[in-house]
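Structure request: Pollen-specific protein SF21, Vanilla planifolia.
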Amino acid sequence: MGDSTSTVSIDVERISFGGKVREHHVETSYGPVSVVVYGDRDKPALVTYSDVALNYLSCFQGLFFCPEAYALLLHNFCIYHICPPGHELGAAPISLEIPLPSVDDFADQIAEILDFFGLDSVMCLGVSAGAYILTLFATRYRDRVLGLILVSPLCRAPSWTEWLYNKVLSNLLYFYGLCGLFKDYLLQRYFSKELLGNGHYPESDIVQACRRLLEEKQSINVWRFFQSINRRHDITARLKHLRCRTLIFVGENSPFHRESLHMISKLDQRCSALVEVQACGSLVTEEQPHAMLIPIEYFLMGYGLYRPCQFNSSPRSPLSPLCISPELLSPESMGLKLKPIKTRISLEV
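Returned structure:
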């Protein structure tokens, strides 16, 4: 990066990940962006990117609250949580005079962030809109991505129906802010009907907590990111040129389920896998994070990464070797053994 790029670092305590993290406000060619760094900077980097109106706390804390996932990921990686512009805690409204960035701008912005931290290549974990941006980044900077872990990803441009529907929602958001109707749309985007409740059953605690977190967002910042994502372009043709392994999670009740099936069909089947999580919406990291543990561990085995032995002693751990029969290492067996998960896998470890 050039000399014009600077950063302000702030030490803050994040109870959701159980310790001290450092938040960096990095100036890029496309505007400032918040990057929360957690872990040992000498370890390989895992970059995360969240969905519309979410940040790393509301998008990934469920996954990192799992002791096994916490151990697996923090043992092997330093985590770099990239927030969509203006989605970080305490963000100020972004001026309307600043041009809307394109999705390509977001991908290039990630490259500048990696340059700032001196990172050559990274593992990526993204959810929905964040998964699209990280995949686009991987197609534009193929040598800089070691692997992709994508949750309910997008890869095609919006259909006319989706574009028009999102345009109406965008206008609603612009003129009325994060009103109840737009919050309901977001919650239906994230969660399954079982958690959303109905006339007979109340909303689950996780949905209520997410609804409260949405109230803290600057509506104009959400509007800008939502607009940019609604203008995304089709990257299907680029998928066959990816050089990294790809692991896709999608809830069977996700509005992006069909999109995920399309995406896995276009990837190289020798180095990609799909995990369909039953009774789950798009936000698998929050709704059913335990369903991600074993597939992620198998995925990381292909890179020579592992979970530390001191965490293997718990007989209740789903990642304990005592609980994993040898035949589970056969991809053909995974769909039968890992309930409530269905897998479509062809990984060469």
